[in-house]
Amino acid sequence: MTNYPSLIEIKQAHIRIQPFIHRTPLLTSQAINEIADAELYFKCENFQKVGAFKARGAANAVSKLGEEAKKNGVATHSSGNHAAALARAASVAGIPAYIVMPSNAPEIKKKAVKGYGGKIIECEPTLQARETTLDEVVKETGATFIHPYDNYDVIEGQATCALEMWEEGIAFDALMAPVGGGGLLGGTALTSHYLSPDTKIIAGEPEGADDAFRSFQAKKLIPMQGPKTIADGLLTSLGKLNFEIILKHVDDIVTVSDEEIISAMRLIYERMKIVIEPSCAVPLAALLKNKKHFEDQKVGIILSGGNVDLAKLPFK
Predict the structure, then answer these.
(1) Domain Tryptophan synthase beta chain-like PALP: where (predicted)?
(2) Which residues of the chain does CATH 3.40.50.1100 include?
(3) 152-206 per-position pLDDT tens digit
(4) Which is nearest to 76 in space by CA: 66, 86, 67, 68?
(5) Is the pTM for the entire model greater than 0.85?
(6) What class has domain 7-52+151-312?
(7) Which of 75, 237, 266, 285 could form a disulfide with 224 if both were Cys (CB 3.0 to 4.6 A apart)?
């Protein structure tokens, strides 16, 4: 027996977070469809509050806290979008947010956290340093730890992204999402399992941070050591709760090189005229690498976020 969020709980989460998120558009591009030989629908979470899907999970987790827990605020460790999302959700709720960030986190993401009123505590850029520092912060403040992805309230919130896609009434043959910690992929897989069990769920993952791919193949969790990829949002290791969902409800995980990610990212910039971060381009890169598997199909692709440092774009 599992405690996976049910469809009713996912729908309740969607209602709960309505005041705090955007219902993001589903865009198409005839030019990219012709390149892909498929009918693609891009769910633009790069237009979401805080510029990423993470706004959903953070808003849901904070909204579900009891009044007593809220008094001491929330804490997390994150190098990026979850940090900003939690800081914003806490700010809206009028409670403190303590964010442990590695010293090498992108400056744009640190600025976002500060802008939302989050208190940043810097640490060495290792998972062990993150966790040790977080433990100290929680002990000192009594704040509630909201894990970036390995938390059912967070997964439930991320699952609302696919719920909105299914509400569009399109009969998707496949849905695609990037995978880092697995919150978005796990949530997408759950919602789709409830609403359209025959739809294939495919993840894209960078070759330089391929722990989800290796874990999926081995059917056991293999933590990532020394990830290296341009897709900075996907450097984290896959979460345990998400891995259980992924093993049950995801059909495949496809790895792509940084060159393939940059090429897909450029394609979206040039053809769709929208700003996305490298992690966002990973599912499209995976589709283009395996075009024959998607030929003439309707494919939904979640564009996970748009928080990119414009001074460091990977193409000139």
Answers:
(1) 17-305
(2) 7-52+151-312, 55-145
(3) 999 999 999 999 999 999 999 999 999 999 999 999 999 999 999 999 999 999 9
(4) 86
(5) yes
(6) alpha beta
(7) 237
